Every structure is written in structure tokens, then in C-alpha cells.
Amino acid sequence: MSATVEELERRLAHVEKEVTRLRQQIEPAPPLEAPSDRGARLLHEARMSQPAIAAAAAKAFAEMEITGAPVGPEKLREMMAACGVNAKESPFSQEIEVMREE
Predict the structure, then answer these.
(1) Does residue 95 share a domain with residue 79?
(2) Of the candidates 59, 39, 57, 36, the residue with the CA atom closest to the CA atom of residue 47
(3) How many domains does the chain have?
(4) Residues 75 and 97 in one domain
(5) Domain containing 75: what range?
């Protein structure tokens, strides 16, 4: 059986997650961490979980048939207008405008 790259990424992410969980069980964080130690620990945990996040995002994009590079905001506005979306009437767009003014 030949595994795909996506399958290997998913399996590796699972193993890394399990190793992190086991480490936390046998090596609990010190009760009073210095901010720099906490930052280093959180950064390490984020790096360890990145393969799982990347695999999940790739799977989601594949399931939604999303391909290619992301488009910029101007192109997105053009695409939305071409589909009949009026940003002036969209509650989502209106809220973004309110947030920009703050």
C-alpha cells in the first residue's frame, strides 16, 4: 500500500499531537513560569501543532475544491460584484466598515 503525502502528513500530525499530550502528562509545566518561559513553551507547542493545522486546512480546501493562490481584496470585491453581491447592503461588509472607522 502506497501512502499519499496528505495521508503521511495526517499520520505524522497525529503522532506529534500524541507525543505532545504524553509529554504534558509526564512533564507538567512548572507552577510559576516566567513570561519568557511561557512564551517559549507556547511557541514550541504552536510549532508542534502546525503540521496538523496545515493538514486540516489542506483537507478542507481539497473538499471545497479550493485551488490556486489567494486573491487580493480588490479582486475579491470584483468577483463578489460579478456574482451580484452589493457590499453596501451586506451586514458583514457594513460591520467591517464600522470597525475600520474605530
Answers:
(1) yes
(2) 39
(3) 2
(4) yes
(5) 69-102
Contact in structure between 16 and 51 (CB atoms under 8 Å):
yes
- Average pLDDT along the chain: 87
Q: Which of 59, 31, 56, 29 is nearest to 44 (CA)?
A: 29
pLDDT top residue among 63 and 90: 63
> Is residue 77 exposed (0-12), middle (13-18) or buried (19+ Cβ within 10 Å)?
middle
Look at the pTM and tell me if it is higher than 0.90. Answer: no
Around 52, how many Cα atoms within 13 Å sit in the side-chain half-sphere? 13
All residues at 6 or more sequence positions from 12 whose CB lies less than 8 Å from its CB, including other chains:
51
Nearest residue to 87 (alpha-carbon basis) of 39, 100, 12, 19: 100
- Output the DSSP codes for 7-73: HHHHHHHHHHHHHHHHHHHHSPPPSS--HHHHHHHHHHHHHHHHHHHHHHHHHHHHHTT--SPPPPH
